[in-house]
């Protein structure tokens, strides 16, 4: 770690490149398991060996400075190899979802990780320290990266968050967040920076608190991330289940959560489950604490999105509390909010927030429709979110008969709802 000097004045601390820090940690615990999924695992020695060969292959392709490499790799050993290999080549990476279009200067898939033909030779020289060098782009809906992170911002934030979470060799991070979502990449980097084991469950368990707890037990997880909705569901756990959690030793483990849980709710959940809840990069901490320096929440928060407004119309305003729809099933409202938060990667959504003001567009409208339909168990027309743009209005519309307009024409908005955005809202 060095000091960046300008005119004999210290302006900022310059950390070694993220790739160098990851390599140092790997060499400290070479025989520890770095990442595992099903029957496949890599030790830190094996991971560094594979990543170095991938870096050599990528450097031979003479990628330009600041090149962006799209990774279409399954979570687990392949993804960890891809991330470390791209960083070793001095490039930046973005993780593509399974249905995302190709993006970046080149795209790597699992076939590109067949590296037997690449000589290992001597370790490659590390990329020089450069606080402005891009490290990764966190992909938004549709595979379009919405946030680009550079060394000078991301590396100190990751190190501070690792220390705040007390992550260390011997810990196991349960990797539940999809890799192409905002916090998925952070989980991988935090785990590898700490010399911990990254455990990727074979089957997704994003909604069911009981399944998540069972997976935590099976994987001997010490750190995991549970959504606010799942944590609230945990308040309904039986006394027997709560006893099981104590017996399993969860009082000594850490659960990441989102900063939107208010202190009273957080205290209730901690008392009920014995989970020590650690907000993700809670920037409200006092400056004296290490965690206050992380800035991770700020880095991972995309800029606010305002949908275009047609000429002659004022901006769409979310309904206020006085406009709340009477008689709406609160359970359905919570289900809608949960789906919107998952798809939009936006925490703290309320019943009166406007879908498009939260960053929604025509593509995510399809995704949230599918998510709500799966959760409620019946088909829902896609155009519903355009006509009922708050969770309360949307839930109320779900309780009434509706139809999908097959002609391609959006039906006229009902009284009290806002005007749907134009096609230009897709981004």
From TrEMBL:
Residue stretches of biased makeup (Polar residues): 407-417
Keywords of the record: Phosphopantetheine, Phosphoprotein
Matches recorded under Pfam families: AMP-binding, PP-binding
Keyword GTP-binding: no
UniProt cross-references to InterPro entries, sorted A to Z: ACP-like_sf, AMP-dep_synth/lig_dom, ANL_N_sf, PKS_PP-bd, PP-bd_ACP, Ppantetheine_attach_site
Alphabetical GO biological process terms: amino acid activation for nonribosomal peptide biosynthetic process; antibiotic biosynthetic process; secondary metabolite biosynthetic process
Domain annotation Carrier: ranges: 327-402
GO molecular function, one term: phosphopantetheine binding
Any one GO cellular component localisation term in the record: cytoplasm
SUPFAM superfamilies according to UniProt: Acetyl-CoA synthetase-like, ACP-like
Taxonomic superkingdom: Bacteria
Regions annotated as coiled coil: none
Region spans: Disordered: 300-325, 400-427
PANTHER family with a match to the protein in the record: FATTY ACID SYNTHASE, NONRIBOSOMAL PEPTIDE SYNTHETASE
Name used for this protein in its record: Carrier domain-containing protein
Species name: Streptomyces pilosus
Lineage: Bacteria, Bacillati, Actinomycetota, Actinomycetes, Kitasatosporales
